[in-house]
Amino acid sequence: MTGSGNWPAAIRRSRRRIAATYALAVAELCCETSYPWAVGLAIDGLLADRPTAMAPLVAIWLLHAGVGVARQAYDTRLFTRLYAEAVTEMIDRQGSSGASTAVLAGRSALARELVEFFETDVPMVLTAVLGCAGSLALLAVYDARAGALALLLLVPVALLNRRYGRRAVGLNEAINNAAEEEIDIIASGHRPAVVEHFRNLARLRVRLSDAEARTWGITELFSVATAIGVLLLLTTPAPTSPGHIFAAMTYLFAFIHGLDAVPSAVERTVQAYDIAARLGSEDEHAPIKE
Question: In this structure, are residues 84 and 30 in contact, taking their beta carbons and an 8 Å threshold?
Fold first, then answer.
């Protein structure tokens, strides 16, 4: 894998602005993580004839909406500019080094995917990690045994995604190689070559999707077993309040939901590193270091 020095210069120059949008994403996550607590509080309050117990839920909801609007407006302006700068600089640098038009066109499309990685996937990974940690901690506050059981779920998830990540490296490199060759193949007008190119691309994407689906599916089996165990712990021997059980189970499902995003995050991260190596290369035939 390439190191951070191979990220396009436009992205490296904008580290602080990118960090600012990630900070807004974390603020949104804090609001989202607070919802189960606020809803549980509202449920118990309304059952006890205390309508004011809904106030925290309303306040969190309004704050979440405000932060979300601000982040979307900021993201659009930041990342559209980053894409324009990254592509322009890549074409200037690699074009002067003799890279073909087809390779430059292919890498321009890949650059869009790299910027989307920073705009969409990095915040997703960040919020998934922090969300999992926060949800697990809050679940443990409601029931320490349930928190410990949920923590064990990380073991199979880590092993499954480590295996999937190794598989994704080779498949993503092959897909990106095909993307760089696509314009030349189409321009050749040789129908068998065009047919074979797109069939091969389809096969690669199916193999990548199947590997991700297998990882997710096996993870779900462990998640179902964990959810059943936690529900039994929360309801036996003596059930607690409905709001307590609701909040605890919601935090468990938030934790599991975060783990569901891991295979996709692994694939997108592998792809981003491969693309960054290509955009940072002066040679259109330079090998991708792993």
Answer: no
